[in-house]
Amino acid sequence: MPENKKMWLVTFAVFGLLVFEILASMISHSVALLSDAAHVGTDLLAAIITLYAQKIAMRPSTDSMSFGYSRGTVVSAFVNGVTLILLSLIVLFETVQRFFSPVSIQPSWMLTAAIVSFIVNFFIVISLFSGGKNLNIRSALLHFAGDAVVSLGVILSAIGISITHQEWLDPAISLLLVSIMMVTSYRIVRESLLILMEGTPPSVNIDQIIQALLSIKGILAVHDVHIWGVSDAEFAASFHLLVAPETKVVETDRILEKIEALLLDKFSIVHVSVQFECEVNPLHTGFPHRKMG
Ligand SMILES: [Zn+2]
Ligand SMILES: [Zn+2]
């Protein structure tokens, strides 16, 4: 089955699960189910946004969108993460309230919904398992495997409640689910924000790159180095190089070829802009080089 079709199928399965879990959490009064439903809801949103962003990311670059559309996936991840945090806060509020004013819940409905959720997640994992080595599919697989484990936790607490009648087990498991959701969403927001703020990708070491550049014959000094992610997989770099005044333009071309090969091979940098200089310019420290107005 093609990857895209598979993702759509998963999306429909998750939608069915969401509707069922919302109904079940209303009937059973379980906040654990509510937080699971909130999580499933954001999964659905994430899947839809990702499918759309991936489609947009394929568009070629134009004069007005010179970097293309690949950063659309980063924007979608950011929106996703923020939504996830807001939703977690709402569920957290409900959960904490439940500790102080307990509500009698129906463990049978809680159990049924958790079993359905486990089965759906289990089959999603099985169907994604044949998806090969694509990074998106693999991270989706890991995610739904985690969700299956969560459903297992809800199943156990539903059984626990029906045997012991300890109803605090419900908000307790809910608290655990919300905490996991918050940690995940915090990471998504932090990683996507770094790219949106043009931060240096965590996998890139600027000092290492400068040392590698200085090892190329003809380069005397490197300054004003910027390395940023256009998306989470494509990096770009720009910097100034000091060369001897007698260097010919044709020689800078040879240097440039070496730089492009080096940066692509060792640092996955796909887009390089270099400014050759033969004199040190004191204005070229930090950003910006010149103030406006
Ligand atoms: Zn999930
Ligand atoms: Zn400079």
Give the SSE map.
Elements: H1 3-28, H2 31-57, H3 72-100, H4 107-129, H5 135-164, H6 169-196, H7 206-214, E1 221-229, E2 235-242, H8 249-267, E3 269-277
Parallel strand pairs: 2-3
Antiparallel strand pairs: 1-2
Bound molecules: zinc ion (2 copies).
Any overview of this molecule?
With about 290 residues, the chain is mostly helical. It has 2 domains: about 190 residues, Cation efflux protein transmembrane domain (Alpha-lytic protease prodomain-like, Up-down Bundle), CATH 1.20.1510; about 70 residues, Alpha-Beta Plaits (2-Layer Sandwich), CATH 3.30.70. The protein contains 8 helices and 3 strands. Strands 1-2-3 form a 3-stranded mixed β-sheet, covered by helices on one side. The termini are far apart. The mean pLDDT is about 85. Bound molecules: zinc ion (2 copies). One zinc ion (ZN) binds next to helix 2 and helix 5.
Short structural summary:
The protein is built from 8 helices and 3 strands; from the N terminus they run αααααααββαβ. It has 293 residues and is mainly alpha-helical. β2, α8 and β3 form a beta-alpha-beta unit.
What characteristics describe this protein?
293 residues, mainly alpha, Alpha-lytic protease prodomain-like, Alpha-Beta Plaits, 2 domains, 3-stranded mixed sheet, 8 helices, 65% helix, 9% strand, elongated, binds zinc ion
